[in-house]
Amino acid sequence: MDSPAVIEVTGLTKRFGAGVLAVDDLSFTVRRGQVVGLLGPNGAGKTTTLRALLGLIRPTSGTMAIFGEIVRPGISVLSRVGALVEGPGFVPHLSGRRNLELYWRSNGRALSEAHLEHCLDVSGLGPSADRKVKTYSHGMRQRLGYAQALLGRPELLVLDEPVNGLDPRQIVEVRESLLRIGASGTTILLSSHLLSEVEQTCSHVVVVHHGRLMQSGTVAEVTASVASAYLEVDNAGGAIALLAALPGVRSVEPSPPGIVVQLDGAKRSDLVAALVGAGVRVDTVTPRRSLEDAFLDLVGEHSV
Amino acid sequence: MIAVEFAKQVRRVRTWVVAAICIVIPFLIGLGFELGGNNNANGGNGLNFVTHQSGIVIGIFALSFSSVLLIPIVFAIFAGEPIASEARWGSLRYLLVRPVTRPRVLGSKLGVSIVLAVGTTLLIPITGTIVGIAFFGLHPVHTFGIGTGSYVSGSSVVTLPIASALGRLLLATAYTLFSMLSVVGIATLVGVATENALAAMSSGIGLYIVSAILDALSGLSRIHPLLPVHYLEAWTNLFVPGTSLQGMLHGVISAGIWGVVPLLLAFRVFQRKDVLC
Q1: Average pLDDT of B170-184?
Q2: Residue B140 has what DSSP assignment?
Q3: For chain B, does the N or the C end have fewer beta carbons within 10 angstroms?
Q4: What does the pLDDT look like over A27-73, one tens digit per residue?
Q5: Looking at the predicted structure, is the pLDDT value of residue A145 above 50?
Q6: In the beta sheet, which residues pair with residue A212?
Q7: CA distance A215 to chain B (A)
Q8: Beta strands, E only, chain A
Q9: Which of residues 71 through 110 in chain A touch B, CB cutoff 8 A?
């Protein structure tokens, strides 16, 4: 049985002014305990979706609900949400610690509920937490922003590009922290243009491109749904010409030492039969299942 | 929420610079009269006293010299900045992803701005009076009254006892600060709409400058009562016994309208705004 929906986005559309359609009829559901990656290239509408979800912008049409409550600015269920939206933002003339204290207190909740020291530990800022934020590097602000989102152990985390601007070691630390938090039952929706990050952190993925939903499901489902094959043959040039003409094949590209075939109805066995029938010797046939391929295929980069 | 906003603003260098200016200027005015040596007691804005030899007169002059430019600037700075600086820091979105309604966010920020602006500008007449007392002592104020009633006909010397003079200075200060509601209204509206502190501050002051120019053009006398600066100096009649205080009543109404209308608009704009910063 499915766990209850924490986030329900239905037909979300956002047009800025008369022009750009940033999000176009986007629908998806995030259920309790899932760690969902909102994946798409820059400009796909990820940040706009998260902003709308948090009540920062008014959707042109569509509805969104968090914990069953329809999203409007300042709704009460936001007390159960920790957020990092399009980079951190702090009062520059106060220390990192003071910023988190004031942020928490302006919710009207006791400082003892915030688990402030724990969150500062996660940020890894150490003694720098007592320095003014204006002296921080971009990475330090980002980690403080992540720590701010964790204040009060929220049931839902909404994180926009959480590892943006971090160095590789810090990325690993944040990823491990996210895995720990996800394993403890917290629901997480994070956006990323980094496929590897989503693949390593998330249980589910929602792929968006040009503001539209391309696909959603578990990471395994999305990668498996994209039919493609990697072949190594003795005559790559001949095989490319032959396979490109087959029905049910979308594209064929060399990928030395083999070739990559994007399928659109044809089966891998059809490819082998056609190649063998034409006298091409097939050495290796493997399905390609990395999210990278699935993603590039979904957003149409391969067919360009 | 309000306590948090205070904590953010009070630590700002800007707040302390403004407070320092509001102390230094009346001090300089007092010093000027002390060094001036003669008995000149002309305080601008048509204010004229028999002598400046009372601390209260220096307090009155400090208010008079500041009311045209310094006080509007202070109010424009404090009112225009709060939303704009949060937007610049990127922290506005974090203020709004909490279970707090937008009118409450704007209301707390506006309330704290007004308290800080009133707090710093109050330093002007207070410092002026204290400096004046230090230089000239605390004495009744001798001024020139006009008209009939309890006073002799025509212009004549009237003595305001210390308590009465201080009471009038207090009322004059309250009136001047209330008149700043129009600056607060415009600066807040522009600050919320543009998220640009400089634009907000300049529109607050710009409103004053433009309407002061229009107010000086006699050809436009029919629209003068509609201008926000028109009644700004009506309080000086408090120190010319026998003159009408009706200007102050009109001033309160004018400032109320010039303040409330843009403030209502500001709340409406903020409520509907797409927060992208």
Answers
A1: 96
A2: P
A3: C
A4: 999 999 999 999 988 888 999 999 999 999 999 999 999 999 999 99
A5: yes
A6: A209
A7: 27
A8: 5-15, 21-31, 35-39, 61-66, 69-70, 81-84, 156-160, 187-192, 204-209, 212-218, 228-233, 249-255, 258-263, 282-287
A9: 73-79, 81, 83, 85-94, 98, 102-103, 105-108
